From TrEMBL:
It comes from Zhongshania marina. Homotrimer. Its cofactor is a divalent metal cation. This is 2-C-methyl-D-erythritol 2,4-cyclodiphosphate synthase. It comes from the Bacteria. 4-CDP-2-C-methyl-D-erythritol 2-phosphate binds at residues 8-10, 34-35, 56-58, 61-65, 132-135, 139, 142.
Length: 160
């Protein structure tokens, strides 16, 4: 088994929606990024890449490469997972914690879990997504950004 941890942050800006875990959430915010800004999927990609010592998301999808401008992070996640499978591993489970003062994320958690599970062709029982605020402390509490921690357990395929 291999364990990986990912962390990412994106700045909140004025907008009409944010996308987290592949789910578009209408609100007064957007996330500043080169891609679609899905900070949760970026952290999840980093966790999987880190578990196998394959670098980070910036190594595989650099933010100075125009081909990734506005990229769909679900597609990036699927490309990262293809690397995981090529290395002889599969997802045992993933656990994400999204820190955002707003918008309220609880109504979207089930859809987030299901979207990730579908993208990776795993059971939604293998994907945990939690949301928290920071009690108005720090940059998250001031609604300046969203931070996400992701942890994954990768299992060897056909382990003896």
């Amino acid at each position: 088994m291999r364990i990986g941890h990912g962390y990412d942050v994106h700045r909140l800006i004025e907008g009409e929606a944010i996308t987290l875990c592949g789910v578009k959430i209408p609100c007064q915010w957007g996330l500043l990024a080169h891609s679609d800004g899905d900070v949760a999927l970026h952290a999840l990609c980093d966790a999987m890449l880190g578990a196998l010592a394959l670098g980070d998301i910036g190594k595989h999808f650099p933010d100075n490469d125009p081909q990734y401008a506005g990229a769909d992070s679900l597609k990036l996640l699927q490309r990262v997972y293809a690397l995981v499978l090529e290395q002889g591993y599969r997802l045992g489970n993933a656990d994400l914690t999204i820190a955002a003062q707003q918008p309220k994320l609880a109504p979207h958690i089930v859809a987030m879990r299901e979207t990730i599970a579908t993208a990776l062709a795993v059971s939604s029982g293998s994907v945990s997504v939690k949301a928290t605020t920071t009690e108005k402390l720090g940059f998250v509490g001031r609604s300046e950004g969203v931070a996400v921690d992701a942890v994954v357990l990768l299992e060897r395929i056909n382990a003896a």
